[in-house]
Amino acid sequence: QVQLVESGGGLVQAGGSLRLSCAASGRTFSTYAMGWFRQAPGKEREFVGVTSYSGGRTYYADSVKGRFTISRDNAKNTVYLQMNSLKPEDTAVYYCAAVPLYSNPNNVDYWGKGTLVTVSS
User: 27: pLDDT confidence band, cut at 50, 70 and 90?
Assistant: First the structure.
């Protein structure tokens, strides 16, 4: 079993940056691809991006490509989401997820509880 705890959310002005962290418990962290998702108020949860087991591959939704970067440190059981050039439409609760297959990031085994990011205009 993997437990995931996100941190780093908060209030930021448009154009600013935030880095989210997701700390994982369990010795199987490096066997999972790790995804980030978000859910804006009144909307369905959507895919943001995913990194492979080693962190050598990443894939992003078009809405964040070029602004967001996912990285991971398997020695620390942590995955990160660096968010730059933030826009008000990036406001959402951000979730990390443990994903068995990098090629199918919507098939999630474990979810974190989320951290709120609010971008003011």
Answer: confident
